[in-house]
Amino acid sequence: MSLPPGERIEAELASEGVPPPDIVIEPDADRLAGAAASAFVARVAAAQAVHGVASVVLTGGGVGTAMLERVADLAEEPEREVVDWTAVEIWWGDERFVPADSDDRNELGARRALLDRVGVPEERVHAMPAADGEFATAEEAAHWYAAELAELGGDDEVPRFDVLLLGMGPEGHVASIFPDSPAAQDDRPVVAVHDCPKPPPTRISLGFSAINSAEEIWLLVAGEGKAEAVARGVRGAPGTELPAGAVHGRRATRWLLDAAAASRLPEA
Ligand SMILES: O=C1O[C@H](COP(=O)(O)O)[C@@H](O)[C@H](O)[C@H]1O
User: Fold this and answer.
1) How far is the CA of 157 from the centre of ligand 1 (A)?
2) Tens of pLDDT, residues 28-73
3) Angle between helix 29-51 and 62-75 (nearest 10)
4) Of all protein residues, whose CA lies closest to atom 3 belonging to ligand 1?
5) How many C-beta atoms surround the C-beta of residue 263 within 10 A?
6) Whose CA is nearest to atom 12 of ligand 1?
7) pTM of this prediction?
8) Per CATH, which fold does 31-258 belong to?
9) Which atom in ligand 1 lies closest to the alpha carbon of residue 226?
10) What are phi and psi of 64, to 5 degrees?
11) Residue whose C-alpha is closest to residue 92's, from 119, 121, 130, 118
């Protein structure tokens, strides 16, 4: 018996023991950023209601940064604000090992888009080290970040992540784990990455073990150029070939797409 395409994806994933992801499709990148921002605010507020302090992992990238701007816009509407920004731990999924004032830093993008606007206390902002800081190599910086995570992790290697945001490249990279990269087979929570095909070449990234410890993982993806990778990633392609295929949140994995990025998915 042949199944409809949407059910076929679910059946394929179920046969591998992978819970099927949620897929949300918005008409364009702008509305995607807005919808993701509203959902993010609700998720952070819900985590604060349960835990007091929420814990989130940010991404760089076009939609990821646009979403943070929209979150800050929401925070400036006092009647709609539901998040206590003094009670959010901020982490990053990856960072470029370049000087702190470089526009290539994901940290700088997130500070400009959100953190500087809502006033998260500095002690809750856990940026990955920059190349002009105290660490000479990306390896030393990755080691330090792993210790930082472990310090808040209690008995675990990493703390609870309520929601972890990821962008995705057209070749399926997430954070700074690229196809065929040693990072895709490294089980450490934080890894140094060299020779990235997308500049800058030297980076620090959470590994799959830390990424997949998150309660919820949200992949924010826009554009026709990523449609093929989305179609493969949703089906759970092997992480060494297409890293996005290997990310699974403990409670949920959510693909937030614009219509162009969703254009190669079978109609459910
Ligand atoms: O290099 C990176 O790229 C991805 C995706 O960026 P995008 O602009 O194509 O959306 C990003 O998620 C990641 O954090 C970043 O370091």
Assistant:
1) 25
2) 999 999 999 999 999 999 999 999 999 999 999 999 999 999 999 9
3) 60
4) 61
5) 16
6) 167
7) 0.94
8) Rossmann fold (3.40.50)
9) 9
10) -60, -45
11) 130
* 205, two tokens: 């990234």
The protein residue with its alpha carbon nearest to ligand 1, atom 15, reads 60
Which of these, 24, 7, 92, 69, lies nearest to 230 by C-alpha position? 24
For the chain, the structural domain boundaries read 31-258
First to last CA, the chain: 17
Residues 6 or more apart from 35 whose CB is under 8 A from it?
24, 26, 256
Integer Cα distance of 183 and 208 in angstroms: 8
Beta carbons within 10 angstroms of residue 55's beta carbon: 24
Cβ neighbours of 251 (radius 10 Å): 11
Residue 240 phi, psi dihedral angles, 5° rounding = -70, -30
Task: Give the pLDDT confidence of 186-210 residue by residue, as tens digits.
Answer: 999 999 999 999 999 999 999 999 9
